[in-house]
Design brief:
Helix content: 40-55%
Order of helices and strands: HEHEHEHHHEHEHEEEEHEH
Distance between the termini: 43 Å
Radius of gyration: 19 Å
Oligomer: single chain
Strand content: 15-25%
Strand order of the largest sheet: 5-4-6-7-10
Bound molecules: NADP nicotinamide-adenine-dinucleotide phosphate
Structural class: alpha/beta
Protein backbone atom coordinates (compact mmCIF):
# COMPACT_ATOMS: atom_id res chain seq x y z
CA UNK A 1 0.00 0.00 0.00
CA UNK A 2 1.30 3.43 -0.92
CA UNK A 3 1.03 5.82 2.00
CA UNK A 4 -0.83 8.98 1.10
CA UNK A 5 1.05 11.75 2.88
CA UNK A 6 -1.01 14.46 1.23
CA UNK A 7 -4.24 13.00 2.62
CA UNK A 8 -2.79 12.85 6.14
CA UNK A 9 -1.57 16.44 5.73
CA UNK A 10 -5.04 17.60 4.63
CA UNK A 11 -6.61 16.00 7.69
CA UNK A 12 -4.07 17.69 9.96
CA UNK A 13 -4.64 21.00 8.18
CA UNK A 14 -8.34 20.78 9.07
CA UNK A 15 -7.42 20.11 12.71
CA UNK A 16 -5.05 23.09 12.68
CA UNK A 17 -7.81 25.33 11.29
CA UNK A 18 -9.94 24.39 14.31
CA UNK A 19 -7.05 25.03 16.71
CA UNK A 20 -6.49 28.44 15.13
CA UNK A 21 -10.14 29.37 15.62
CA UNK A 22 -9.78 28.61 19.34
CA UNK A 23 -6.51 30.51 19.55
CA UNK A 24 -8.22 33.77 18.50
CA UNK A 25 -4.94 35.31 17.40
CA UNK A 26 -2.90 35.09 14.23
CA UNK A 27 0.43 33.37 15.00
CA UNK A 28 3.48 34.72 13.25
CA UNK A 29 6.49 32.80 12.03
CA UNK A 30 9.83 34.42 11.15
CA UNK A 31 11.83 32.40 8.63
CA UNK A 32 15.48 33.22 7.99
CA UNK A 33 16.74 32.14 4.59
CA UNK A 34 20.45 32.49 3.83
CA UNK A 35 21.94 32.61 0.34
CA UNK A 36 20.43 31.35 -2.89
CA UNK A 37 19.87 27.63 -2.47
CA UNK A 38 17.08 26.56 -4.84
CA UNK A 39 15.98 23.62 -2.64
CA UNK A 40 15.80 25.86 0.47
CA UNK A 41 13.85 28.45 -1.51
CA UNK A 42 11.29 25.82 -2.53
CA UNK A 43 10.93 24.54 1.07
CA UNK A 44 10.39 28.08 2.34
CA UNK A 45 7.86 28.75 -0.41
CA UNK A 46 5.93 25.61 0.57
CA UNK A 47 5.81 26.74 4.18
CA UNK A 48 4.71 30.20 3.10
CA UNK A 49 1.87 28.79 0.98
CA UNK A 50 0.46 26.71 3.82
CA UNK A 51 0.77 29.70 6.18
CA UNK A 52 -1.24 31.79 3.72
CA UNK A 53 -4.00 29.16 3.53
CA UNK A 54 -4.20 29.02 7.32
CA UNK A 55 -3.97 32.78 7.90
CA UNK A 56 -0.65 32.49 9.68
CA UNK A 57 1.69 35.44 9.33
CA UNK A 58 4.90 34.29 7.66
CA UNK A 59 7.76 36.78 7.54
CA UNK A 60 10.71 35.80 5.39
CA UNK A 61 14.12 37.40 6.02
CA UNK A 62 16.61 36.80 3.24
CA UNK A 63 20.27 37.20 4.15
CA UNK A 64 23.27 37.13 1.81
CA UNK A 65 25.48 34.01 1.80
CA UNK A 66 28.28 36.20 3.22
CA UNK A 67 26.31 37.03 6.40
CA UNK A 68 28.45 36.80 9.53
CA UNK A 69 27.53 34.73 12.55
CA UNK A 70 27.21 37.86 14.68
CA UNK A 71 24.80 39.44 12.21
CA UNK A 72 22.66 36.29 12.15
CA UNK A 73 22.65 35.95 15.95
CA UNK A 74 21.71 39.63 16.29
CA UNK A 75 18.71 39.11 13.97
CA UNK A 76 17.62 36.03 15.96
CA UNK A 77 18.02 38.00 19.21
CA UNK A 78 15.73 40.68 17.84
CA UNK A 79 13.06 38.05 17.06
CA UNK A 80 13.50 36.51 20.52
CA UNK A 81 12.63 39.91 22.03
CA UNK A 82 9.87 40.79 19.57
CA UNK A 83 6.46 39.95 21.06
CA UNK A 84 4.90 40.04 17.59
CA UNK A 85 7.03 37.03 16.54
CA UNK A 86 5.83 33.71 17.95
CA UNK A 87 8.11 31.27 16.15
CA UNK A 88 11.59 31.43 14.62
CA UNK A 89 12.92 29.11 11.93
CA UNK A 90 16.38 29.17 10.37
CA UNK A 91 16.29 27.31 7.07
CA UNK A 92 19.14 24.82 6.67
CA UNK A 93 21.77 24.37 5.29
CA UNK A 94 23.87 27.21 6.66
CA UNK A 95 27.05 28.63 5.07
CA UNK A 96 30.39 27.37 6.41
CA UNK A 97 31.21 30.49 8.46
CA UNK A 98 28.13 29.92 10.66
CA UNK A 99 28.25 27.53 13.61
CA UNK A 100 24.96 25.65 13.51
CA UNK A 101 25.03 24.89 17.25
CA UNK A 102 25.46 28.56 18.11
CA UNK A 103 22.41 29.34 15.97
CA UNK A 104 20.12 26.80 17.61
CA UNK A 105 21.36 27.71 21.08
CA UNK A 106 20.47 31.33 20.36
CA UNK A 107 16.83 30.70 19.38
CA UNK A 108 14.65 31.09 22.44
CA UNK A 109 13.35 27.58 23.37
CA UNK A 110 9.82 29.03 23.56
CA UNK A 111 10.03 30.20 19.92
CA UNK A 112 11.97 27.23 18.56
CA UNK A 113 9.43 25.77 16.05
CA UNK A 114 11.98 23.28 14.72
CA UNK A 115 12.72 21.89 18.20
CA UNK A 116 16.48 22.13 17.69
CA UNK A 117 17.47 24.23 20.70
CA UNK A 118 19.45 21.93 23.07
CA UNK A 119 16.88 22.51 25.82
CA UNK A 120 14.09 21.16 23.60
CA UNK A 121 16.30 18.26 22.49
CA UNK A 122 16.97 17.52 26.18
CA UNK A 123 13.26 17.52 27.06
CA UNK A 124 12.66 15.05 24.25
CA UNK A 125 15.52 12.82 25.45
CA UNK A 126 14.09 12.59 28.98
CA UNK A 127 10.67 11.66 27.64
CA UNK A 128 9.01 15.02 28.31
CA UNK A 129 8.91 16.61 24.86
CA UNK A 130 7.92 20.25 24.48
CA UNK A 131 8.70 21.00 20.82
CA UNK A 132 9.60 18.02 18.63
CA UNK A 133 11.45 18.42 15.30
CA UNK A 134 8.67 18.34 12.66
CA UNK A 135 10.13 15.64 10.40
CA UNK A 136 10.52 13.17 13.26
CA UNK A 137 6.99 13.68 14.48
CA UNK A 138 5.70 13.47 10.86
CA UNK A 139 7.06 9.92 10.72
CA UNK A 140 5.12 9.08 13.88
CA UNK A 141 1.94 10.63 12.41
CA UNK A 142 2.21 8.21 9.49
CA UNK A 143 2.41 5.28 11.92
CA UNK A 144 -0.62 6.62 13.77
CA UNK A 145 -2.69 7.24 10.63
CA UNK A 146 -2.03 3.79 9.20
CA UNK A 147 -2.30 2.06 12.60
CA UNK A 148 1.22 0.68 12.26
CA UNK A 149 2.17 -1.12 15.44
CA UNK A 150 5.39 0.13 17.01
CA UNK A 151 5.26 -1.82 20.25
CA UNK A 152 7.63 -4.76 19.91
CA UNK A 153 8.48 -3.90 16.28
CA UNK A 154 12.04 -3.80 15.05
CA UNK A 155 12.70 -0.38 13.56
CA UNK A 156 15.87 0.40 11.64
CA UNK A 157 16.77 4.06 11.16
CA UNK A 158 19.20 4.83 8.36
CA UNK A 159 20.53 8.32 9.06
CA UNK A 160 21.22 9.85 12.45
CA UNK A 161 20.93 13.62 11.93
CA UNK A 162 19.71 16.15 14.49
CA UNK A 163 16.69 16.77 12.29
CA UNK A 164 15.42 13.23 11.77
CA UNK A 165 17.23 10.17 13.16
CA UNK A 166 18.24 11.54 16.57
CA UNK A 167 14.81 12.92 17.60
CA UNK A 168 13.08 9.79 16.24
CA UNK A 169 15.08 7.50 18.50
CA UNK A 170 13.50 8.52 21.85
CA UNK A 171 10.06 8.82 20.23
CA UNK A 172 10.19 5.28 18.86
CA UNK A 173 11.57 3.81 22.06
CA UNK A 174 8.82 5.57 24.02
CA UNK A 175 6.33 3.74 21.77
CA UNK A 176 7.90 0.38 22.60
CA UNK A 177 9.90 -0.20 19.41
CA UNK A 178 13.34 -1.81 19.35
CA UNK A 179 15.54 0.54 17.37
CA UNK A 180 18.78 0.10 15.43
CA UNK A 181 20.59 3.12 14.03
CA UNK A 182 22.72 3.09 10.89
CA UNK A 183 24.99 5.83 9.59
CA UNK A 184 27.82 6.43 7.15
CA UNK A 185 30.25 4.09 8.91
CA UNK A 186 27.78 1.23 9.37
CA UNK A 187 29.18 -1.99 7.95
CA UNK A 188 26.96 -4.30 5.90
CA UNK A 189 23.94 -2.01 5.83
CA UNK A 190 21.85 -4.50 3.86
CA UNK A 191 22.15 -7.16 6.57
CA UNK A 192 20.71 -4.74 9.14
CA UNK A 193 18.00 -3.19 6.96
CA UNK A 194 16.79 -6.67 6.01
CA UNK A 195 15.90 -7.35 9.64
CA UNK A 196 13.61 -4.32 9.89
CA UNK A 197 9.86 -4.59 10.34
CA UNK A 198 9.88 -0.83 9.80
CA UNK A 199 12.67 0.90 7.88
CA UNK A 200 13.03 4.69 8.11
CA UNK A 201 15.54 6.18 5.69
CA UNK A 202 16.78 9.77 5.99
CA UNK A 203 20.11 10.07 4.24
CA UNK A 204 19.88 12.14 1.05
CA UNK A 205 21.24 9.52 -1.38
CA UNK A 206 19.01 8.47 -4.29
CA UNK A 207 18.31 4.73 -4.53
CA UNK A 208 20.42 3.88 -1.47
CA UNK A 209 17.86 1.28 -0.42
CA UNK A 210 17.24 -1.46 -2.98
CA UNK A 211 14.63 -4.23 -2.97
CA UNK A 212 17.25 -6.81 -1.95
CA UNK A 213 17.93 -4.80 1.22
CA UNK A 214 14.45 -5.14 2.70
CA UNK A 215 12.43 -7.91 4.28
CA UNK A 216 9.26 -8.97 2.45
CA UNK A 217 6.28 -7.14 3.93
CA UNK A 218 8.38 -4.45 5.63
CA UNK A 219 7.07 -0.94 6.14
CA UNK A 220 9.24 1.64 4.39
CA UNK A 221 9.31 5.31 5.33
CA UNK A 222 11.44 7.32 2.91
CA UNK A 223 12.32 10.73 4.33
CA UNK A 224 14.97 11.54 1.70
CA UNK A 225 14.47 14.29 -0.85
CA UNK A 226 16.86 14.28 -3.81
CA UNK A 227 16.75 16.29 -6.99
CA UNK A 228 17.80 14.18 -9.96
CA UNK A 229 17.49 16.23 -13.11
CA UNK A 230 14.02 17.71 -12.97
CA UNK A 231 12.65 14.90 -10.81
CA UNK A 232 12.43 14.68 -7.04
CA UNK A 233 13.08 11.22 -5.63
CA UNK A 234 13.72 9.70 -2.22
CA UNK A 235 16.47 7.46 -0.86
CA UNK A 236 14.58 4.27 -1.73
CA UNK A 237 14.36 2.56 -5.12
CA UNK A 238 10.58 3.10 -5.00
CA UNK A 239 9.41 1.14 -8.08
CA UNK A 240 11.17 -2.09 -7.07
CA UNK A 241 10.85 -1.78 -3.30
CA UNK A 242 7.09 -1.14 -3.43
CA UNK A 243 6.55 -4.63 -4.86
CA UNK A 244 8.13 -6.18 -1.77
CA UNK A 245 6.99 -3.79 0.99
CA UNK A 246 3.62 -3.83 2.75
CA UNK A 247 3.52 -0.03 3.14
CA UNK A 248 5.73 2.57 1.51
CA UNK A 249 5.86 6.36 1.38
CA UNK A 250 6.30 7.95 -2.05
CA UNK A 251 8.59 10.92 -2.69
CA UNK A 252 7.15 13.45 -3.22
CA UNK A 253 3.81 13.11 -1.44
CA UNK A 254 4.92 11.09 1.58
CA UNK A 255 6.65 12.53 4.65
CA UNK A 256 7.16 16.05 3.18
CA UNK A 257 3.59 17.44 3.28
CA UNK A 258 3.10 16.16 6.84
CA UNK A 259 6.36 17.79 8.00
CA UNK A 260 5.06 21.24 7.05
CA UNK A 261 1.88 20.61 9.04
CA UNK A 262 3.88 19.47 12.08
CA UNK A 263 5.91 22.66 11.92
CA UNK A 264 2.74 24.76 11.99
CA UNK A 265 1.28 22.62 14.74
CA UNK A 266 4.39 23.46 16.78
CA UNK A 267 3.89 27.15 15.97
CA UNK A 268 0.25 27.12 17.04
CA UNK A 269 1.09 25.30 20.27
CA UNK A 270 3.89 27.69 21.24
CA UNK A 271 1.71 30.69 20.36
CA UNK A 272 -0.99 29.31 22.66
CA UNK A 273 1.54 28.87 25.48
CA UNK A 274 3.00 32.35 24.95
CA UNK A 275 -0.51 33.80 25.36
CA UNK A 276 -1.08 32.08 28.72
P1 LIG B 1 22.11 14.88 7.08
O1 LIG B 1 22.18 15.82 8.21
O2 LIG B 1 23.07 15.02 5.95
O3 LIG B 1 22.22 13.40 7.67
C1 LIG B 1 22.33 12.29 6.84
C2 LIG B 1 22.54 11.06 7.67
O4 LIG B 1 22.70 9.95 6.78
C3 LIG B 1 23.78 11.07 8.57
O5 LIG B 1 23.49 10.47 9.81
C4 LIG B 1 24.80 10.20 7.79
O6 LIG B 1 25.70 9.48 8.59
C5 LIG B 1 23.88 9.21 7.13
N1 LIG B 1 24.46 8.62 5.92
C6 LIG B 1 25.12 9.23 4.91
N2 LIG B 1 25.50 8.34 3.99
C7 LIG B 1 25.08 7.14 4.43
C8 LIG B 1 25.17 5.83 3.92
N3 LIG B 1 25.78 5.57 2.76
N4 LIG B 1 24.62 4.82 4.63
C9 LIG B 1 24.01 5.06 5.81
N5 LIG B 1 23.88 6.29 6.34
C10 LIG B 1 24.42 7.32 5.66
O7 LIG B 1 20.69 14.91 6.39
P2 LIG B 1 19.21 15.26 6.98
O8 LIG B 1 19.08 16.70 7.20
O9 LIG B 1 18.84 14.31 8.06
O10 LIG B 1 18.35 14.87 5.69
C11 LIG B 1 18.35 13.56 5.17
C12 LIG B 1 17.45 13.52 3.95
O11 LIG B 1 16.13 13.80 4.37
C13 LIG B 1 17.79 14.59 2.89
O12 LIG B 1 17.50 14.05 1.62
C14 LIG B 1 16.81 15.71 3.19
O13 LIG B 1 16.50 16.49 2.06
C15 LIG B 1 15.61 14.91 3.64
N6 LIG B 1 14.68 15.63 4.53
C16 LIG B 1 13.37 15.48 4.25
C17 LIG B 1 12.42 16.07 5.05
C18 LIG B 1 10.97 15.84 4.75
O14 LIG B 1 10.14 16.54 5.27
N7 LIG B 1 10.65 14.87 3.95
C19 LIG B 1 12.83 16.85 6.13
C20 LIG B 1 14.20 16.96 6.43
C21 LIG B 1 15.13 16.32 5.62
P3 LIG B 1 26.79 10.18 9.55
O15 LIG B 1 25.97 10.60 10.77
O16 LIG B 1 27.74 9.10 9.84
O17 LIG B 1 27.33 11.34 8.77
Amino acid sequence: MIIDGKKIAQKIERQLTEKLKKLKTEPSLAIILIGKNSASEIYVQEKQEVCQRLNIKCLIFKLPISVTQNQLLALIDGFNEDKKVNGILVQLPLPDQININAVFCSISPEKDVDGLNPLNIGFLEIGQPFIIPPTAVAVLEIMKSYKIKLKGSKVVLVGYSNLVGKPLLPLLIEQGATVTICHKKTKNLAKITKEADILVVAVGKPNLIKAAMIKKGAIIIDVGINRVGKKIIGDVDFEKVKKKASFITPVPGGVGPITVMMLLRNLIEITRLQKE
